[in-house]
Amino acid sequence: MIGKPHILFKKDRTSLSPTDAAQQLVKLIKEEIAATGYGHAYTGTVNSAFTRSGGTVAEYVAGIDHGIEAGLFTVDDSGTRVKIGRHTVGWKRAK
Length: 95
Hints:
The longest helix is centred in the N-terminal third of the chain and has 19 residues, at 18-36. Helix 1 crosses helix 3 (57-70). Helix content is 45%, strand content 9%. The protein has a three-stranded antiparallel sheet. Residues 1-9 have low confidence and may be disordered. It is globular and about 40 Å long. The protein has helices at residues 18-36, 43-52, 57-70, and strands at 41-42, 73-75, 81-84. By secondary structure, it is mainly α. It has one domain (18-84).
């Protein structure tokens, strides 16, 4: 017997679609912007909130990619900040 597992896996969970993940990210971004008063949210904070609420890293990445492509939000070139909507200079845009 190995003992208790260090990681607890969630059972019977349906994966989020990229669209649903992006919508969840929009909600979390807006919540952080409202709480801080900044015009942006930090990707680390949003990522942490997303995964703590049950999302996976793969769902986060798919949601970020979909959200950028759909123009829901934009991540800065450094990858540390995210804003709602499309932005230009210094911000990643849809390919």
